[in-house]
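hiii so um. not sure if this is the right channel but i have a protein structure encoded as tokens and i wanna go backwards to a sequence. like what aa goes where. can anyone help
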């Protein structure tokens, strides 16, 4: 998986800043020829090596056969395609392996910044080989949050929203991985997202000591018949619980 993701990143960088062909998927946003090329590479490499695994990717037609497989690859060949098209270095290549609905290994690679977030169950998480530990203990009032600005509107919170620094990057996976660094405290998504947006970053933050749940605190299991997730709150404890307690229900 590490080699396949690295090669997909190199392939994608051949398109970055070169005006690749793009088009819109109805109701889903933009896609580029680089997304499809990276998807083809990852599928050929990973499924070629493990043909008995299931496959779930944003850029592949969904095959219901995955539902009968214990081990499933969950792939987003470019998470943050809009940033990629706009020439912003805020996109990632995401690959995760889930076993019985639980991510057990994942890579989130930002090739434009040469940042590789990696994790395996029980083995910790790393950024470019250096251990990641999500140990920031920010107070709720000072929490520094990666999200859309609309998330921090007061109408969505029981009291005042988190009052620390706010930021945003287009890739959901990149936001979650940044919570495992020393720069950010939480990533919040209030709208629906897809399994491929999160699976790889989920295992990275979890192995770094952080927590990941839906916006109402439910456990996330992967390879569902409908591969969507009802929002996201990602943070280290105890801030994670405080964010969930203060968010109003949808």
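sure thing!! here u go:
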């Amino acid at each position: 998986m590490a080699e396949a993701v690295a090669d997909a990143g190199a392939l994608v960088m051949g398109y970055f800043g070169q005006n690749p062909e793009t088009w819109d998927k109805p109701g889903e946003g933009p896609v580029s020829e680089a997304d499809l090329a990276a998807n083809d590479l990852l599928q050929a490499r990973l499924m070629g090596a493990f043909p008995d695994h299931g496959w779930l990717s944003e850029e592949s037609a969904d095959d219901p056969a995955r539902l009968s497989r214990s081990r499933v690859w969950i792939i987003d060949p470019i998470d943050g395609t809009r940033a990629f098209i706009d020439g912003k270095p805020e996109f990632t290549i995401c690959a995760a392996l889930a076993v019985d609905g639980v991510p057990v290994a994942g890579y989130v690679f930002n090739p434009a910044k040469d940042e590789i977030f990696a994790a395996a169950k029980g083995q910790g998480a790393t950024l470019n080989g250096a251990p990641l530990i999500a140990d920031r203990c920010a107070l709720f009032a000072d929490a520094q949050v990666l999200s859309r600005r609309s998330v921090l509107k007061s109408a969505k919170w029981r009291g005042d929203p988190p009052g620390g620094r706010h930021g945003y990057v287009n890739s959901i996976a990149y936001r979650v991985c940044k919570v495992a660094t020393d720069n950010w405290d939480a990533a919040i998504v209030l709208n629906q997202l897809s399994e491929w947006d999160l699976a790889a970053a989920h295992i990275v933050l979890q192995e770094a000591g952080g927590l990941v749940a839906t916006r109402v605190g439910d456990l996330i299991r992967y390879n569902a018949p409908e591969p969507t997730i009802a929002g996201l709150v990602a943070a280290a404890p105890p801030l994670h619980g405080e964010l969930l307690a203060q968010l109003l229900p949808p």
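oh and The chain has six helices and 16 strands.
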